[in-house]
């Protein structure tokens, strides 16, 4: 490898001086449409594979319904949102839910250590609403411009075509914000026992908007009625020797025998302001909202009660996008959410085609059938026009027989936006070590042991430079965490502790204290490490 370093450019040859941040109005956003560097980067990334999904290629899915309580916790849902899907008590909204693994290909094993996708298409009376999340409540990065870099690092080496631990940890070592997710995914929580016994989360921050145009920040979560169960690496390996698709089989068989999986749908609510009292930005998707301050409030339940008639037509061709919202649910300035909103739908137009929304699995419910002036394109199956003048495919028209705009809400939501346009990194989340350390201390002994063994085994395969930096990171999360990782991987702890902070990254506010363990059930702990399929 040559010591000569080249200047990073985009595909037009323009030098890139900041590859870390979207261009936003002020530090917290929103992002701007003229983010050429990001758009060029993400749209190329979306087209890197055909026809398989770039990420979330291995998946399973099922049909079902969402049934609202009509409340947010104990309060009327209408206090927070005018979305009919939450307010119409007794109405069951059809849904399609696709589960997936993230990094592996379409034929990869479902025992793979990886976040699990949890994507729901709600076919509401006001049109489709897509909620695209995963089983864990955080993510690796908080700025969408880093997504291609992250996936490239986690995918196989472009030369050896192998997933190399050093590539994963090389990326993580330079992005301390990833430590929280790494602590989750390298523990047993990184291998759910199956799809039925795992949580779901929208991960990103959204807004709920009511009839008065008042918005609240919101996170969506799903708690399985079946309970939560995870696997150790050893148990996952035992299952993989016999079956690489155990989770798909488990889901299919459960529905076929009438054992319908069910989840409580919950939200966390926060007022729509800066929240300076918090030591993190609530729009940062690498952080969790503390449930003692922002409790999970039930809004309904989802039930899966029907398997697909055809796997390819429904599971493979199902297409989701975070920008697919209905009235009463809106975007926050979460930088990952804003970047995903472009990327996801762009991916579907490329992977499935510009008319992917005409496929039955993706089309809106009949009660909200599409009526647009959009025409033609590859694989157009029909024209989604009104029964008016077929010659008028534009708006407005003096003939008055074409499509008309819908009535405007009585009080719409208007966000005030002001700030200097530039590229910013989050300063309120200077300490990316706190929640990772807190998570480590809530794990039970067997979970910590599996976590340490997994990370230690990975780091043994990494160069010393990466080994030392990762131990430095873990030690700043929790002294015991760093000490045990160093011991497991045979790394000199004192040498690691002597490293300076990363250039250009804020130093940890303070070293985390030595762990003190308490007996009792850990927060959000899987009840056991039993084998998949057992009750």
UniProtKB/TrEMBL annotation:
Please tell me where heme binds in this chain.
344
Which superkingdom is the protein from? Bacteria
Q: Where is this region: Disordered?
A: 1-25, 496-535
The region annotated as signal peptide is none
Q: Which GO terms describe its molecular function?
A: catalase activity; heme binding; metal ion binding
Where does this protein have compositionally biased stretches of type Polar residues? 1-23
Tell me which UniProt keywords the record has, alphabetically. Answer: Heme, Hydrogen peroxide, Iron, Metal-binding, Oxidoreductase, Peroxidase
Coiled-coil positions are: none
Q: Which GO terms describe its cellular component?
A: cytoplasm
What PROSITE patterns does the entry give?
CATALASE_2, CATALASE_3
GO BP: hydrogen peroxide catabolic process; response to hydrogen peroxide
UniProt-listed Enzyme Commission number(s): 1.11.1.6
The cofactors it requires, by name, are: heme
Keyword field contains Heme: yes
- Matching InterPro entries: Catalase, Catalase_AS, Catalase_clade1/3, Catalase_core, Catalase_immune_responsive, Catalase_sf
Q: Which residues form the active site?
A: 56, 134
Q: Which family does it belong to?
A: Belongs to the catalase family.
Task performed by this protein: Decomposes hydrogen peroxide into water and oxygen; serves to protect cells from the toxic effects of hydrogen peroxide.
Q: What is the name listed in the Swiss-Prot or TrEMBL entry for this protein? A: Catalase
Organism of this sequence: Noviherbaspirillum humi
Task: Provide the taxonomic classification.
Answer: Bacteria, Pseudomonadati, Pseudomonadota, Betaproteobacteria, Burkholderiales
């Amino acid at each position: 490898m040559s010591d000569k370093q080249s200047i990073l450019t985009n595909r037009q040859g323009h030098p890139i001086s900041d590859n870390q941040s979207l261009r936003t109005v002020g530090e917290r956003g929103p992002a701007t449409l003229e983010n050429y560097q990001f758009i060029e980067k993400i749209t190329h990334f979306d087209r890197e594979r055909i026809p398989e999904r770039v990420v979330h290629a291995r998946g399973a899915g099922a049909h079902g319904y969402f049934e609202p309580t009509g409340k947010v916790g104990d309060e009327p849902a209408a206090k927070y949102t005018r979305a009919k899907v939450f307010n119409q008590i007794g109405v069951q909204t059809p849904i399609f839910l696709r589960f997936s693994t993230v990094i592996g290909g379409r034929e990869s094993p479902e025992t793979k250590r990886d976040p699990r996708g949890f994507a729901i298409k709600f076919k509401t009376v006001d049109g489709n609403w897509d909620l695209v999340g995963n089983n864990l409540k955080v993510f690796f990065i908080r700025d969408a411009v880093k997504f291609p870099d992250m996936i490239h690092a986690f995918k196989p080496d472009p030369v050896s075509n192998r997933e190399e631990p050093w590539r994963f940890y090389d990326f993580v070592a330079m992005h301390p914000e990833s430590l929280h997710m790494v602590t989750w995914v390298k523990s047993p929580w990184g291998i759910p026992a199956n799809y039925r016994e795992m949580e779901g989360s929208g991960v990103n921050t959204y807004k709920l908007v009511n009839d008065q145009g008042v918005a609240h920040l919101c996170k969506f979560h799903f708690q399985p009625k079946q309970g939560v169960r995870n696997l150790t690496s050893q148990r996952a390996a035992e299952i993989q020797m016999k079956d690489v698709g155990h989770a798909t089989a488990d889901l299919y068989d459960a529905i076929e025998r009438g054992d319908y999986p069910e989840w409580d749908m919950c939200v966390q609510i926060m007022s729509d302001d800066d929240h300076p009292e918090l030591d993190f930005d609530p729009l940062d998707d690498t952080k969790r909202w503390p449930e003692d301050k922002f409790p999970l409030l039930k809004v309904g339940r989802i039930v899966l009660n029907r398997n697909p008639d055809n796997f390819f037509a429904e599971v493979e061709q199902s297409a989701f996008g975070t920008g697919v919202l209905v009235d009463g649910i809106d975007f926050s300035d979460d930088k990952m959410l804003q970047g995903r909103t472009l990327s996801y739908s762009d991916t579907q137009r490329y992977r499935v085609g510009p008319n992917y929304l005409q496929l039955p699995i993706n089309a809106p419910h009949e009660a909200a059938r599409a009526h647009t002036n959009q025409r033609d394109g590859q694989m157009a199956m029909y024209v989604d026009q009104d029964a008016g003048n077929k010659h008028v495919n534009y708006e407005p028209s003096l003939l008055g027989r074409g499509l008309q705009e819908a009535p405007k809400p009585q009080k719409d939501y208007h966000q005030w936006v002001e700030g200097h346009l530039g590229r910013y990194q989050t300063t309120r989340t200077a300490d990316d070590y706190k929640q990772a350390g807190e998570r480590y201390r809530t794990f039970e002994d067997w979970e910590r042991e599996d976590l340490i063994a997994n990370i230690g085994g990975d780091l043994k395969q990494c160069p010393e430079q990466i080994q030392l930096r990762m131990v430095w990171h873990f030690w700043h999360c929790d002294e015991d965490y760093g000490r045990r990782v160093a011991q497991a991987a045979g790394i000199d702890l004192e040498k690691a502790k002597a490293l300076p902070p990363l250039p250009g990254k804020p130093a940890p506010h303070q070293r985390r204290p030595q762990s003190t363990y308490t007996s009792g059930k850990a927060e959000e702990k899987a009840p056991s490490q039993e084998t998949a399929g057992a009750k």
